[in-house]
Design brief:
Strand order of the largest sheet: 1-9-8-2-5-3-4
Distance between the termini: 33 Å
Largest sheet: 7 strands, mixed
Strand content: 15-25%
Shape: globular
Number of domains: 1
Number of helices: 11
Order of helices and strands: HHHHHEHEHEHEHEEEHEEH
Number of strands: 9
Radius of gyration: 19 Å
Helix content: 40-55%
C-alpha cells in the first residue's frame, strides 16, 4: 500500500482502528462460520473492489506460481481464495491466542516433530525459518505456550492498532517480538537469543528493504532477505524449515523439516547462499502444494533484475 494518497491512508487508519479491536473481541465469542463469512463479504470483497491493484498483483503472482495466464479461472479463484485465507488468518490468530492452549493443541496435527526435538537437543540455538503462508502466528502461539519461549523477528506494522493488538496476543502466548529496522544493532537481541540456545522464528520469503540477494524462484529471479541466514551462521545455530498450515477442515498442520546445518567449508557468504538456495527450493515445493496459503499482495518478482544464468 506504499504510495497511497494521504486521504486513503487516513481511511485505512480509521478502518483498522475499528475492525482490529472489534475482531479481537468477536473472535473469541462469535461462531467461526459467521466470522469467516464477514471476512469474505465485509472485508475482502469491498477491499478487492475498492483497491483492485492488489488483486491484479495477486493474480500476477499466481500466474507465475501456477504456470497459467492471469485470465485463467484457476488463477482468479486462487487470488480470491488467498485473500479470504489472509482475512481468516487474523480471525484464527485472535481466537486461538485467547483460547486455552489445550484446545489449540487438540486442533493441531504435526509432521516431523522429531526434527524440532533433534535440533533442540544439540544445545545450539535454533532458527525456525518460515514464510508468509498458513498461520505462523497461531503456530508460534501454540509452541510458545506448549513448549518454550519463542522469539520472533518482525518488521513493524504500518498501522499502530494492528501492531498493538498483535503484540498483545503474542505476549500472552509466550512469544516475544524483536522488531527489525534499518539499524544493524536491531538484530543484537536476536543474536543473544541464539547464543543462549533459544528459539528464534523468522520469515525468509519477503525482501522488505530491497537489499536482499537475487535467486531464481518459480523460474524468475527476485530477491530474498539474507540477514536471518547470516545471523544463524554467526551464532552457530541450526535452521529448521517450519510451516504452520490450515487444513480444509480448518484444523492446523504443523510441519518441521530436517534441520539445515550452518557449519561447513567456505566463507560465511558462500554458506549463506548455499543454505538460501536449498531453503528456497523447499519453499517453492511447499507453495506448489499449498498455493492459496502463500500471502503476498504486491508484485513479488521485480522487473529490474536480470534473468538467472
Amino acid at each position: 500500500m506504499a504510495g497511497s494518497p494521504r486521504i486513503v491512508q487516513a481511511l485505512y487508519r480509521l478502518y483498522f482502528g475499528f475492525w482490529i479491536p472489534t475482531l479481537a473481541w468477536a473472535a473469541s465469542w462469535w461462531p467461526l462460520g459467521l466470522m469467516y463469512w464477514m471476512a469474505r463479504n465485509l472485508v475482502m470483497l469491498p477491499f478487492n473492489i475498492l483497491r483492485p491493484k492488489y488483486l491484479r498483483a495477486v493474480k500476477g503472482n499466481y500466474a507465475r506460481v501456477l504456470g497459467l495466464p492471469e485470465s485463467h479461472p484457476r488463477v482468479r479463484r486462487a487470488a480470491w481464495h488467498m485473500g479470504w485465507e489472509h482475512a481468516y488468518h487474523w480471525i484464527d490468530f485472535f481466537r486461538w491466542s485467547q483460547r486455552p492452549v489445550e484446545q489449540l493443541v487438540a486442533n493441531i496435527d504435526v509432521e516431523g516433530e522429531e526434527h524440532y526435538h533433534a535440533a533442540r537437543s544439540t544445545g545450539r540455538g535454533t532458527v525456525l525459518i518460515t514464510a508468509h503462508m498458513g498461520n505462523a502466528e497461531v503456530g508460534a502461539s501454540g509452541l510458545g505456550r506448549h513448549h518454550e519461549p519463542i522469539h520472533l523477528l518482525y518488521f513493524r506494522d504500518r498501522f499502530a492498532t494492528a501492531e498493538e493488538f498483535r503484540n498483545r496476543m503474542r505476549v500472552r502466548s509466550n512469544v516475544h517480538g524483536i522488531p527489525v529496522d534499518a539499524s544493524p544493532l536491531s538484530v543484537i537481541p536476536a543474536l543473544q537469543v541464539l547464543y543462549d540456545n533459544g528459539v528464534l522464528a523468522a520469515h525468509g520469503d519477503r525482501d522488505f528493504n530491497n537489499q536482499g540477494w537475487p535467486f531464481e524462484f518459480f523460474g524468475k529471479v527476485t530477491t530474498f532477505p539474507a540477514g536471518i541466514f547470516l545471523l544463524a551462521i554467526q551464532a552457530d545455530a541450526l535452521i529448521v524449515p517450519t510451516y504452520f498450515l490450515v487444513k480444509p477442515d480448518r484444523r492446523f498442520l504443523g510441519i518441521y523439516e530436517p534441520a539445515i546445518e550452518t557449519r561447513g567449508p567456505g566463507t560465511v557468504e558462500e554458506r549463506a547462499r548455499a543454505i538460501m538456495a536449498f531453503w528456497l527450493g523447499r519453499l517453492e515445493a511447499r507453495i506448489r502444494e499449498y498455493p492459496e496459503q502463500w500471502y503476498c499482495f504486491y508484485p513479488f518478482w521485480r522487473e529490474d533484475l536480470p534473468a538467472s544464468d
